[in-house]
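Agenda item 2: S-adenosylmethionine complex prediction
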Amino acid sequence: MHDSWNSPDKFNREALQWDENPRRSALALAVSKAIIASASPNKTMRALEFGCGTGLVTMEIASLAGSIVAIDTSREMLAVFYEKIRTSGITNIETREIDLLSPLQNGLQQESFDLIYSSMTLHHISDTAGFLNRISNILAPGGMIAIADLDKEDGLFHDDPLEKVHHGFEREELAAMLEAAGLQKTMFQTAYQFEKENREGKRVVYPVFLVTAIKEKS
Ligand SMILES: C[S@@+](CC[C@H](N)C(=O)[O-])C[C@H]1O[C@@H](n2cnc3c(N)ncnc32)[C@H](O)[C@@H]1O
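Presented output:
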């Protein structure tokens, strides 16, 4: 039995070992640096991370932002993150187990954020365009999104061939979707080169982009 889109099962199973993969930590650090350089988070900002996992990115950004809501659908990933928050004494991160795709349940639609960021989660969300619309709706005027994910890949990045994921994104297609969601000034950069042995045993470099876009003030 294979997990479907949006199923937290795989991440619940992997949560306790998630941070043990040094390439994952290096990727998260590189993405965090790129987000900080592009979005210049500051203490007046209220930020949201979707798909925060064990908090590898948000832990790098927390000291710079005013407050951060970190959401994920996996209870176990959040439990690992919560333990880090508790032991570090950080007080400006709030974790929530919610799915942005379930608007009736997530309670976020009345909220507004100055910065919405994410790393390696967009490819797990089936309806990319619909999802970007949802995010745009809770972005404050003048606010920025900063999303890191895989460039279009060979389809072999994930070890499980049956896992439901997008095989990365074409930058032009994503830019068009961001524009359709009401976001402007789209900019791409390559934030990291993820080198790994793919599931056919070949050593491949998978580039990871960071795309930023702004919701203009009306
Ligand atoms: C590849 S992991 C990345 C985790 C973290 N950002 C990192 O860099 O280590 C993807 C994360 O997205 C979460 N996720 C998947 N679909 C989601 C959704 N619809 N809403 C919120 N989180 C989701 C998963 O539970 C998982 O923790």
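Discussion summary: Residues 156 and 173 are 21 Å apart (CA to CA).
Owner for follow-up: CH.
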